[in-house]
């Protein structure tokens, strides 16, 4: 008996996920953001008609790549937002370790794809914000709000505080990674991260450091996590 009209193959989502993975690898190539819909299909080993069936358009494929990374990153964002806290200095330094590890594990390529495809593009720009950039900033906001509640940071607009904490490292990581800055103008990341945390605390800190929460030493706040986004 055939499938009812409009129903999907049982393996629709699995096939779609495998196509997303294949196209993402092509998008991560140096010329990736300029590839056509036909080239995307070829890189995934399917026909244009098949790719259109699963995604509708070139923009639909890129949106699916961004959505895939949003789903994949949820547990890491949750750990940033809700994981047990070390005293504020160590907590913020641990966040920067975590951010840098994520960039090395594939997140940097997703930011590069989102920015390259989304700038001045009315559909993909907001999609990149919704799926990748804003969730990152929102989890930082949640973490900083907890440090405010612990008396370690001054009360204020945590969205502005999150932008102040996360924007310079994001720019530095894009500069050093997808933009090729490690060859053009190398940056000492460890020195940068240490000095950035100190500058942030001079601007927003109260001088008080609360004791670590139970289990904080085993979280990313104690240094680089054992596994990062994109790692098994």
Automatic annotation (TrEMBL):
Q: Output the superkingdom of the source species.
A: Bacteria
User: Which keywords does this chain's UniProt record carry?
Assistant: DNA-binding, Transcription, Transcription regulation
Show the coiled coil region(s): none
The record places the DNA-binding region at 36-55
- Name the Gene Ontology molecular function terms of this record: DNA-binding transcription factor activity; transcription cis-regulatory region binding
The membrane-spanning stretches of this chain are: none
Q: Does the keyword Thylakoid apply?
A: no
- Annotated HTH tetR-type domain ranges read 13-73
Instruction: Fetch the Pfam families from UniProt.
Output: TetR_C_7, TetR_N
Q: Where is this region: Disordered?
A: 205-232
Give the Gly residues compositional bias ranges: 220-232
What is this protein's record name?
Answer: TetR family transcriptional regulator
Species of origin reads Polyangium spumosum
Q: What is the lineage of its organism?
A: Bacteria, Pseudomonadati, Myxococcota, Polyangia, Polyangiales
